[in-house]
Amino acid sequence: MARRLTHVFTAREWLLLLMLTAVQFCHILDFVIIMPLSPMLMRSLHVSPSKFGLLVSAYTFSAAVSGLVAAAYMDRFDRKRMLLFLLAGFGFGTLLCGLVESYWLLMAARIVAGAFGGVLAGVVFAIVGDQIRAERRGTAMGVVMGAFSAASVLGLPLGLWLAENYTWEMPFRFLAGVTAVVFVIGLLALPPMAAHLTGRRADDPSPFRELWEVGKHPSHINAFLLTIAVMFSAFTVVPFLAPYLTTNVGMAEDKLALMYLVGGLATLLTGPLVFGPLADRFGHARVFTLTAVLSLVPIALVTNLPRVELPVILAVTTLMMVMASGRMISVTALVTGVVEPRRRGGFMSLNSSIQQGAAGAASYVAGLMIGGGEGQPLTGYSRVGLLAIVATLLTLYLIRRLRPAAATAAVPQFDAVGAPEEAAPLEAPRRPAADGVMEDAGWPARDRRRRPARAAED
Questions:
Q1: How confident is the model at residue 329 (pLDDT cuts 50, 70, 90)?
Q2: How far apart are CA 143 and CA 155, in angstroms?
Q3: What is the dihedral of CA 293, 294, 297, 298, to 10 degrees?
Q4: Where are the alpha helices (DSSP H) in 248-400?
Q5: For 407, left (φ over 0), alpha (ψ -120 to 50), or beta?
Q6: Which end of the chain, N or C, is surrounded by fewer C-beta atoms within 10 Å?
Q7: Buried/exposed 427-440: b ≥16 CB within 10 Å, e otherwise
């Protein structure tokens, strides 16, 4: 697996993927750092669980609104320019988070950061969809989404250390500095990316008319519904994981960094080395289904944990993080393939907006279901876990409703390295079966037998 990962991309592709991973690292860390800081923030700012849930939701709701506007114009500009513009605005918003000292000012700063940061993921995934062939897209997503693992392994422990040794504002100030460095590197290293603008005409629909056309497409609607269900399966549980473990399970606050370190290391290895290549070889939908089913166990366990020893906590939380990583790699690769390239930027931005809105709604709903807080044990977390399980089961139905976009012009040509045709993911164009009926490459016909893969492609 490791050898395949190093040879599957060209040097140019690796430069692009690593740059996109750095962008992802910055905005993901900004979003997730506030969750392990929750015990400290709830004490320092004197807020209840519902108010803290609203603070988390402020970022996502802001991202959802700005994503709607960005989606209308995403495909009308060079991808590099759009990426750098959003990265600059995000860095400014993150810096504001490190300069405020009250709940409502922090709320305002989170809204600014979310307005730019929440849209970055849409641009990143659109670039991956534009530049990486479909049969290697799962592996590429595993690399780029390794940013979440890197944020857990490097960012969260460092952020918690800064907060514990200085103030809770310090992690945001540090992240603003890192974002500035990434911006400069992107400005110098990334080439222009305007191939998606080819073929546009003066009589093309207006931006919002075109966005409406993208949004109402039945296949796109199915993808949006799947995104909402995936967000509810995760973001009902995650925002309150740290306070539940520290107040109800008895985990020491200084061990939270260890939890994210262990979970991050596990996902850093399993994402690009296991789930990404497996998705490319056996189909993204199949790998998503497997990881979604397996995720039910840690969700049920972590939301009902009694007072247990630290190794038990680490085992359960790590398993939950690994399965969540596998789901997101597969579903992102799937969703990227349901739209034609010339509309991919707008679609991914719109999907990102819906994703952020769903994450905010999930966090807010969970906050309403949970009681206690401010040093008292949390109540109702098991009901939140049940809601997450129901949402996960819903994804198993929605994943089968996705359909790939019609065959379009090829993406920029790279080395023909990747999975064999028989293992083509859902994004692969439909091809005629023996009886002349079009087959979907993501869900092969029941009677079609899989040819054994060649050893050289392992």
A1: confident
A2: 17
A3: -120
A4: 256-270, 276-282, 284-302, 310-336, 344-369, 381-398
A5: beta
A6: C
A7: bbeeeeeeeeeeeb
Domains of the chain by residue range: 10-193+206-401
- State the Cα–Cα distance between residues 52 and 296, nearest whole angstrom: 26
Q: Quote the CA–CA distance of 281 and 287 in Å, as a whole number.
A: 10
Kindly tell me the burial class for residue 46, based on how many C-beta atoms sit within 10 Å of its own C-beta (0-12, 13-18, 19 or more): exposed
CB 45 within 8 A of CB 106: yes
Q: Give the per-residue pLDDT at 382.
A: 94
Tokens describing residue 152: 């857990």
Rounded alpha-carbon distances, angstroms, from residue 264 to 29, 97, 145, 201, 341: 12, 24, 11, 46, 32
Tokens found for residue 49: 């669980």
Angle (nearest 5°) at CA 41 between 37 and 44: 140
pLDDT tens digits for range 145-185:
777 777 767 777 788 788 888 888 899 999 999 999 999 99
Helix (H, G, I), strand (E, B) or coil at 413: coil
The average confidence (pLDDT) of the chain is 78
Q: Which two tokens mark 105? A: 């000012």
SS3 of residue 135 by DSSP: helix
Residue whose pair of structure tokens reads 């089961």 in the numeric block: 393
pTM: 0.68
The neighbour count for residue 29, using CB atoms within 10 Å, is 26
Topology of domain 10-193+206-401, CATH: Growth Hormone; Chain: A; (1.20.1250)
For residues 409 and 344, what is the distance between their CA atoms, to the nearest angstrom? 13
HSE-up of residue 324 (Cα within 13 Å, Cβ side) = 25
